[in-house]
Write a structure and sequence with these properties.
954 residues; alpha/beta; Alpha-Beta Plaits; Phosphorylase Kinase, domain 1; Transferase(Phosphotransferase), domain 1; 15-stranded mixed sheet; 9-stranded parallel sheet; 14 helices; 52 strands; globular
C-alpha cells in the first residue's frame, strides 16, 4: 500500500511536469505546422522538439520556447502561414536571401508581441505589408527590402516607438508618404528611428513637410528612384543628425530650401536627376561633405559657387548639367582630398589652369562639352583629364589625349578585381579560386552601396580596407571565412556602387549550413560595419547549395528506441528530484534578487559591499539570454579582464557586456569601483553603465553599446574609419568634456587614472565617450590637493610626477590626455620601438618652422594640405602644456576644453555640434628609487615593487 501511494505521488508530480513540458512544446508543434510543405530544410531538422534536438537556425530559452529563427541563404521554398504567430516568445526572425519564400506575410504578424527584429531581405514575398506590423511594439529592426511588396507604406509603422532601422527599399510600393494627422499615425512619429530607406519603389506625391522635425534622430534618409514630386521641404534642414541624404531620380521641382546647409553632419548629398530650379544651393557650413551630386537639374546659370573652396573634406563633386558658367578658379582642384570632379555639359569657359597644388588623390576631372578655350596644366600629371567637345580641342595644333572622345560614364565598366599573388589552380566545376589560390565553393552575392562612392571605383586601397574589415569581422565572430574576393565593380543604373563579393571557407572547400546562416545574418542585420566609403549598404546573396556533410540517420531509430527505454526506467526518480531542485532554485533566486550582494567578498578580497545609485541588477540567466548563451557571434572584444559581448535586452536596447574570466575573482575591486562610480555619473561623453551581474560567481558589467570601437583602432587604421582634422578636433573636445565632468562637476570629483586612446570609444556619429573606470579614484575635499595612492596606470600615458611621488592629482589625467592629443596628431603609439612620443615631440618641435617642424612625425593622412589644419599651432601649444613634467605647469580640464572650443571656432566649426597592440598596464608600490619612468635607457615596468626590463617590441 505504501509503495502504491509513493508511486501515485510520483506519477502525479510527473504529470504536472509533463503538462508544463507539453505547454512549452507548443512551439515545436507550431513550427512543424509552419514549415509543412517547405523544401530544402536543414538536415538536422528531425524529431518533434526543435529545442531539445538543437535544430540549426533555432535558438530557445531555458523554458524550451523558440526565441530566434535565423535561416539566411538556406535555399528554402514555401510560404509564411499564420502558424508563425503561435511562436509567442519569438524575438528575432531572419529568413533573408531565400528567394523561394513567396506569398504574402501573415495578416496577424502583429501578434508576435516580443519580436525585436524582422529581417526578410532578398526573398520573394509579395502582396501588401500588413497593417498589423504596427503592433510589433518592441520592434527595433524592420528590413523588408528587395522583395515584391506592393501597395502603400503602412501608416501604422509610425506606432513603432523603438524602431531603429526601417528599410522598405527595392519593392513596388506606391502611394504617398504617410504622416500622422491626429486620427492615424505616420512616419513623422518615428523620432527615434535612424534609418529611412525607401529607395527603388514607386512612391509618388509631394514630400509632406511634417515628415521631418528637429526632434528626429535620423542619420540616413534615402528616397531615391521613386516618383516624388513638388519641392524638397525646408523641414529637412531641421534634422541636424543626418549624415546621408538621397532624393535623386525623382520628379522634384522648385528651388531647394535655403536652410539645407544646416545639415552640417551630412557626408553624402545626392539630389541629381530631378527638375530642380532656382540657384545652385549654398552649401557653406556643410564641413563634413564627402560627396555631393547635384547633376542633371534645371538650376539657373551661375558662376562656380564659392562654397566649393570652403569644404575641405570633399572627395567627389558631380555638377554635370547644372548651369555653371564662367572660368574655374585656379584653386578649384586643390581640395586636399578631392578625387573626382565631374563638371561636363555646362558653360565653363576661359582658361583651365591646374597648378601644382592639386590634390594628391585626384583621379578624374571631366570637363567635356564646355566652352574652355585654353588649358594650362603641368606635364606628367597622373589623373584622367577629359576635355572632349571644348573649343580648345578644336584647335588644329592641340594633340592632348584628353581631347579624344573618351566620355564613357565613370565607373560604368568593371574597375577592380582582387589581386592574386600565386599560381591559380584549375578548379572543378562550381568551385572558384580564392586570393590564396585554394579551390572552394564560396558564398557569393552582390554588395550595393546606396550612397554614391564614385571615387572608390578602381581605387585599390578602398577595396583592400573593405576586405580587411570583412575578414576582421568574421574572425572576431569566429566564423570560418578565410578570404574575401571583390570583383566586377561598377556604378549601376540606379546610381549605386555595385560589386560582387565571394567569401571562401577556412580549412575546407565547403561551408556548412550553420556558417552560411550566420554569415548571412551578419550581412542582413548590418552587424558588419564597412569603411565609410561603403555605407550605407545592402547585401544581396546568391544561392548556396554546396553544404558540407550529411547526417547519418541509419541508426537513428535504434538510438531513439534505446533512449526511450532507458528513460522510462528512470523517469519517476528524475521527475521527483527535478521538482525538488526546481523548488529550491526558486527560493535561492528570490533571495538573490532581494540582495544581489549576498555572497559579496566570500574570499575576503573585495572590500565592503558596493554602494549603488540606480544601476540595474541582472541575473546570470538574463545576461545569458541576451547574448544568446555568450555565443561567439556576439563576441566583440577581449582584454585582460575577460571578454566583451554584444547583447540585446528584452526592451530592444543593444548593450556591451564585459565578462570577467570564469571562476576568477581577479579584478573584483576594479569591478566594485566601476559599478559604484558609473552608477552615479551621467554625461554624454562618458560611457553609460546600464547595470551589472553578480551571480553564480560571475562578475559582469552591462554598458551602452558603442559601435565604432576605440580611438586607437581608428587612428591605427584598424576600424576602417578615417578621421580627418575636423573629426579629430571633435573627438578631442568630446573626450576633454567628459574628463571635465569627472574633475569639476561630479560630486565628489573623480580622477580617471587610465586615460588613453584605448579607453576613448566612438559612437555611430563619432562622438567620443570616455570608458573603463576600474582604476578611478574619488577625489574629495582635501587640504593637500592630492591623494596618496599606489601607482596604477598604463605605460606611455602615466604622469611622471605621479610615478615619482605616488601623489595623484587631477593633473595626472591631464598628462595622460596630452599623450592622447599627441596620438591624434601622429597616429603613433605612446611608446614605439623604445621611443617615448612626448620626448620625441619636445625634441623635434620648432615654433619658427612650418608645422612647428613636426611634418615627419605627423599622421600622413593629415598632411594632404596645410590649409586644412586650421588651428594646428594652437593645438600643438595646448598639447605641450598638457604634457609638462610638473602638474602645476599643466592646464585644468576647464582650460583645455575652452582652448579646444576656440580652435574649433577658429576653423569655423560649431563646438557644440555632435559628430565616428594593447597598452600594457602595471601596478606597483614605492617608486622613488627607480628614476623617471620614460628615461632613454630604462623603460621600466613595475609589478609589486620589483623592476624588470619592459619589452619595447610593439
Amino acid at each position: 500500500m505504501m509503495l502504491l501511494r509513493i508511486s501515485l505521488s510520483l506519477v502525479f508530480i510527473c504529470i504536472h511536469v509533463w503538462g508544463t513540458t507539453a505547454q512549452t512544446n507548443e512551439d515545436g508543434v507550431a513550427l512543424k505546422a509552419l514549415i509543412e510543405g517547405w523544401k530544402n530544410l536543414p538536415k538536422s531538422w528531425t524529431g518533434e522538439d526543435p529545442c531539445g534536438s538543437r535544430w540549426e537556425g533555432i535558438t530557445c530559452n531555458n523554458y524550451s520556447r523558440i526565441i530566434t529563427i535565423t535561416l539566411a541563404s538556406m535555399g528554402l521554398t514555401g510560404q509564411l502561414t499564420e502558424d508563425l504567430t503561435s511562436l509567442s516568445e519569438l524575438q528575432t526572425l531572419d529568413l533573408s536571401y531565400n528567394k523561394g519564400l513567396t506569398g504574402p506575410l501573415p495578416s496577424n504578424i502583429g501578434d508576435l508581441s516580443k519580436l525585436t527584429s524582422l529581417i526578410l531581405v532578398g526573398c520573394g514575398f509579395s502582396g501588401r505589408i500588413p497593417d498589423s506590423v504596427g503592433s510589433l511594439n518592441k520592434l527595433i529592426s524592420l528590413s523588408l527590402n528587395s522583395n515584391s511588396f506592393i501597395g502603400q507604406v503602412p501608416a501604422s509603422i509610425g506606432n513603432l516607438k523603438h524602431l531603429y532601422w526601417l528599410d522598405l527599399s527595392d519593392n513596388q510600393l506606391t502611394g504617398s508618404i504617410p504622416v500622422s494627422d491626429g486620427s492615424k499615425p505616420g512616419l513623422d512619429l518615428l523620432v527615434n528611428t535612424k534609418h529611412f530607406h525607401f529607395g527603388m519603389n514607386q512612391l509618388s506625391g509631394e514630400i509632406p513637410p511634417s515628415l521631418f522635425s528637429s526632434g528626429m534622430k535620423l542619420i540616413h534618409v534615402l528616397f531615391d528612384n521613386n516618383k516624388l514630386t513638388g519641392r524638397l521641404p525646408s523641414t529637412l534642414g531641421l534634422v541636424q543628425t543626418l549624415t546621408a541624404v538621397r532624393f535623386d531620380r525623382n520628379f522634384l521641382s522648385g528651388a531647394l530650401p535655403s536652410n539645407l546647409n544646416n545639415l552640417t553632419k551630412v557626408t553624402e548629398l545626392v539630389l541629381s536627376n530631378n527638375r530642380l530650379t532656382g540657384p545652385v544651393p549654398d552649401l557653406t557650413g556643410m564641413d563634413m561633405l564627402v560627396s555631393v551630386d547635384l547633376s542633371n537639374n534645371n538650376f539657373e546659370a551661375t558662376d562656380v559657387p564659392l562654397w566649393f573652396s570652403t569644404i575641405q573634406t570633399l572627395k567627389t563633386v558631380n555638377m554635370e548639367r547644372t548651369g555653371l558658367v564662367g572660368q574655374l578658379p585656379v584653386t578649384f582642384f586643390d581640395f586636399p582630398q578631392l578625387q573626382t570632379a565631374i563638371l561636363k555639359n555646362n558653360q565653363l569657359n576661359g582658361t583651365l589652369e591646374i597648378d601644382s597644388g592639386y590634390s594628391r588623390y585626384l583621379q578624374l576631372i571631366d570637363l567635356q562639352n564646355n566652352s574652355i578655350s585654353n588649358v594650362k596644366v603641368e606635364s606628367g600629371y597622373n589623373y584622367t583629364l577629359r576635355l572632349a567637345d571644348n573649343p580648345f580641342c578644336h584647335n588644329g595644333l592641340v594633340a592632348l589625349s584628353s581631347c579624344n572622345n573618351n566620355g564613357q560614364e565613370s565607373g560604368s565598366d568593371a574597375s577592380y578585381k582582387t589581386p592574386v599573388f600565386c599560381v591559380v589552380p584549375e578548379c572543378t566545376s562550381g568551385q572558384m579560386s580564392s586570393s590564396t589560390c585554394k579551390c572552394a565553393y564560396p558564398y557569393t552575392g552582390i554588395m550595393i552601396v546606396r550612397a554614391p562612392s564614385i571615387s572608390a571605383l578602381g581605387n585599390e586601397k578602398y577595396y583592400t580596407a573593405l576586405q580587411t574589415t570583412l575578414i576582421g569581422t568574421f574572425v572576431n565572430l569566429s566564423l570560418p571565412v578565410e578570404a574575401v574576393s571583390v570583383n566586377n565593380v561598377s556604378m549601376n543604373a540606379f546610381g549605386y556602387l555595385s560589386m560582387h563579393l565571394a567569401f571562401f571557407p577556412a580549412n575546407q572547400d565547403h561551408f556548412n549550413r550553420t556558417a552560411i546562416s550566420m554569415i548571412g545574418f551578419v550581412l542582413s542585420n548590418q552587424t558588419y560595419q564597412p569603411p565609410p566609403e561603403f555605407k550605407p549598404y545592402v547585401f544581396e546573396a546568391e544561392g548556396y547549395t554546396h553544404f558540407e556533410g550529411k547526417h547519418n540517420t541509419s541508426h537513428t531509430g535504434a538510438i531513439i528506441g534505446a533512449i526511450i527505454g532507458i528513460s522510462i526506467l528512470v523517469l519517476l526518480l528524475v521527475c521527483a528530484g527535478g521538482y525538488a531542485y526546481h523548488q529550491k532554485k526558486r527560493v535561492v533566486k528570490a533571495k538573490q534578487q532581494a540582495n544581489p550582494f549576498v555572497s559579496w567578498d566570500s574570499q575576503g578580497t573585495s572590500g565592503d559591499v558596493p554602494q549603488l545609485k540606480g544601476a540595474r541588477f541582472f541575473t546570470f540567466n538574463e545576461v545569458q539570454k541576451c547574448t544568446n548563451n555568450f555565443s561567439e557571434a556576439n563576441h566583440v572584444g577581449s582584454g585582460g579582464y575577460g571578454k566583451v559581448y554584444r547583447g540585446v535586452l528584452g526592451d530592444g536596447m543593444i548593450v556591451a557586456i564585459k565578462r570577467s574570466q570564469q571562476g576568477s575573482m581577479q579584478g573584483s575591486r576594479e569591478f566594485k569601483n566601476e559599478i559604484e562610480l558609473l552608477s552615479r555619473i551621467h554625461h554624454k561623453n562618458l560611457v553609460k553603465l546600464i547595470g551589472f551581474c553578480f551571480d553564480r560567481g560571475e562578475q559582469m558589467l552591462v554598458y551602452e553599446f558603442i559601435p565604432n570601437g576605440t580611438l586607437m583602432d581608428s587612428l591605427l587604421g584598424k576600424s576602417g574609419i578615417q578621421l580627418d582634422w575636423i573629426r579629430r578636433m571633435k573627438v578631442a573636445l568630446g573626450s576633454a568634456r567628459g574628463l571635465q565632468y569627472l574633475h569639476q562637476l561630479a560630486d565628489p570629483p573623480i580622477i580617471h587614472r587610465d586615460i588613453k586612446s584605448n579607453n576613448i570609444l566612438l559612437d555611430e556619429c563619432l562622438n567620443a565617450k570616455v570608458a573603463d573606470f576600474g582604476l578611478s579614484r574619488l577625489f574629495g575635499d582635501t587640504d593637500k590637493g592630492y591623494v596618496t595612492t599606489q601607482v596604477k596606470g598604463t605605460m606611455g600615458y602615466l604622469d611622471p610626477e605621479y610615478f615619482m611621488t605616488n601623489q595623484l592629482t587631477e593633473k595626472s589625467d591631464i598628462f595622460s590626455f596630452g599623450v592622447v592629443l599627441l596620438e591624434i596628431l601622429t597616429a603613433r603609439k605612446p611608446i614605439q620601438l623604445g621611443k617615448f612620443i612626448v620626448k620625441q615631440i619636445k625634441e623635434t618641435v620648432d615654433t619658427t618652422k612650418d608645422l612647428y617642424n613636426l611634418g615627419e612625425m605627423m599622421d600622413p593622412m593629415l598632411l594632404s594640405s596645410s590649409t586644412m589644419l586650421v588651428g594646428f599651432e594652437k593645438f600643438v601649444d595646448l598639447t605641450l602644456k598638457c604634457v609638462e613634467e610638473f602638474g602645476a605647469d599643466r592646464p585644468s580640464t576647464g582650460e583645455v576644453v575652452k582652448e579646444l572650443e576656440n580652435i574649433m571656432k577658429l576653423a569655423g566649426m560649431n563646438p557644440d555640434a555632435e559628430s565616428t597592440t594593447t597598452s600594457q598596464t602595471y601596478d606597483g608600490s614605492s617608486r622613488q628609487s627607480f628614476g623617471h619612468p620614460y628615461s632613454d635607457d630604462s623603460l621600466v615596468q613595475y609589478n609589486e615593487g620589483i623592476p624588470f626590463k619592459k619589452s619595447t617590441s610593439n
